[in-house]
Specification:
alpha+beta; Rossmann fold; about 25% helix; binds adenosine-5'-diphosphate; binds magnesium ion
Length: about 350
């Protein structure tokens, strides 16, 4: 069953933590709420969990209106950032606890605990207390505990953010694989764009209590609609257009050519963006067609091993620095740019995005 969030509003005094949020979460998908601190991710997750009463709007699971159902009756599994395991109980007892509360039989509980420990690859840690396990192991037990009663939804609030980078990356893959195996609809809150890109079927980018854009990782990266999304997921050069009258877009004294689909909207274009890896550089001596090619100069160059990052300034717009990323040190044409070089900067039309 899909989870359907309809026009949800939640205020804390003067702060609108959720400002008319609507969203459909398809059954079986892993959805990430992504955004900077304070944008309302936790509030939205807690509203879904029933831990936060909403001011207005509805939360539907299939045809069931859960808006006013108490948390304990929603049958959702919840995992928070800080390890919320019962410290005096072993891993196995932690997992068993919720099943005892639901009056499962002893035999059912024993079988389920074993199954859950196997699922998170911690069968050998069954008798350990939380303090005797690593942070990553504790979070896996917390997930096993949340999944044990067969919840209809799994809700994770920054479950990896207290872990160190290596463990975080391992657990990222493990949660993703586990979620697919179990097939449970999952919402994960994160402020880490890389985590969201790596794990989510769908990313919901939030800002100031509203949804900025929803889409697959590919869509959000390749077709961001706003400069906020473009900048929050990856890096984006925003080209300040020349101030000219009329409809055509001018940049560095030339008419900028964009794909027709990009400029089909009704609103006037004010911002155009391009990803650093989509910009190409050519030796100034190479003759090129006129489209979106600009004489420019390389200002700086940083070698980062797998990529090089360059700063390039168009000769006709010396106020604009364009960040360029190249794999290795040479671009596809085998050209190795150096600081101070005069180059031809190419902004391919199919890589230019109109942003609002
Ligand atoms: N219990 C609360 N009382 C008052 N303000 C709150 C409370 N919880 C959250 N807020 C405010 O609501 C906004 C959204 O918070 P939150 O959902 O926790 O953001 P996020 O999880 O994205 O960091 C913030 O401005 C925060 O200060
Ligand atoms: Mg939060």
């Amino acid at each position: 069953m899909d989870l359907n969030i309809q026009n949800v509003i939640k205020s804390y005094g003067a702060v609108k933590a959720l400002d008319n949020v609507s969203l459909n979460i398809p059954h079986g998908s892993l959805v990430c709420f992504l955004g900077p601190s304070g944008c309302g991710k936790t509030t939205l997750l807690r509203a879904v969990a029933g831990l936060e009463e909403i001011d207005s709007g509805r939360i539907m699971l299939g045809d069931n209106d859960l808006s006013h159902t108490p948390a304990r009756s929603r049958n959702f599994g919840v995992v928070f950032q800080s390890y919320s395991l019962f410290p005096h109980m072993t891993a196995a007892r932690n997992i068993a606890y919720g099943l005892e509360c639901r009056s499962w039989t002893k035999a059912q509980i024993a079988a389920r605990v074993r199954e859950m420990l196997d699922l998170v690859h911690l069968a050998n840690q069954a008798e350990k207390l939380p303090a005797q396990m690593s942070g990553g192991q504790q979070q896996r037990i917390a997930i096993a505990r949340a999944l044990a009663p067969n919840p209809s939804l799994l809700l994770l609030d920054e479950p990896l953010s207290a872990l160190d980078a290596k463990v975080r990356e391992e657990l990222r893959n493990e949660i993703r694989a586990l979620q697919k195996r179990v097939g449970i609809t999952t919402i994960m809150v994160t402020h880490d764009q890389e985590e969201a890109l790596a794990m989510a079927d769908v990313i919901v980018v939030m800002k100031d209590g509203h949804i900025e854009q929803t889409g697959t990782p590919q869509t959000l990266y390749q077709q961001p609609l706003t400069s906020f999304v473009a900048d929050f997921i990856g890096r984006m050069n925003i080209l300040p257009l020349d101030k000219t009258a009329g409809n055509s877009l001018h940049f560095a004294d030339k008419v900028l050519k964009l794909d027709a689909a990009e400029i089909s909207g009704s609103a006037p274009v004010s911002k155009v963006g391009i990803r650093p890896e989509a910009v190409s550089l050519l030796p100034a001596t190479q003759t090129m067609p006129d489209d979106n090619h600009f004489p420019a100069t390389i200002r700086s160059q940083i070698y980062l091993g797998h990529i090089s990052r360059l700063e390039v300034v168009p000769d006709k717009r010396p106020d604009v620095k364009i960040s360029v990323e190249m794999h290795g040190t040479a671009n596809r044409a085998g050209y190795l740019p150096q600081t101070g070089d005069a180059v031809t900067l190419h902004l391919p039309a199919d890589a230019l995005r109109v942003l609002s």
